[in-house]
Design brief:
Layout: E1 19-20, H1 22-29, H2 33-42, E2 51-53, E3 56-60, H3 61-70
Antiparallel strand pairs: 1-3, 2-3
Length: about 80
C-alpha cells in the first residue's frame, strides 16, 4: 500500500492584486496610518475601500492604484487672468 502524504499547496499569489497592510497602504498613498484608521472608523474621508479578514484590515493593491489614478490631474490649478 502506498501512503498518501498530505501536500499542502499554497495558492499562487496574484501579484497585481495583492493585499496591502494598513502600513503599506499609508506608505503608498503618502498618508499617516492614523489618517487611514480614522477615515475607516469614522467614514470621514474619501479613501479606497478596504477588505476585512477577521480582525485584519487590508487594501487591494489594484483598488489603491485605481484610487490614485482617479485623482491624477493633468492640468494646472492656477488660471491666468486677462490683464
Amino acid at each position: 500500500m502506498q501512503k498518501n502524504s498530505p501536500t499542502t499547496q499554497q495558492p499562487e499569489p496574484i501579484s497585481s492584486d495583492r493585499l496591502l497592510t494598513v502600513q503599506e497602504t499609508a506608505s503608498v498613498l503618502g498618508l499617516a496610518v492614523s489618517t487611514l484608521n480614522r477615515a475607516r472608523v469614522y467614514g470621514t474621508s474619501d479613501l479606497p475601500p478596504y477588505v476585512k479578514l477577521g480582525k485584519a484590515v487590508r487594501y487591494r493593491l489594484s483598488t489603491v492604484q485605481a484610487f490614485i489614478a482617479s485623482r491624477t490631474e493633468n492640468q494646472h490649478t492656477t488660471q491666468q487672468q486677462a490683464a
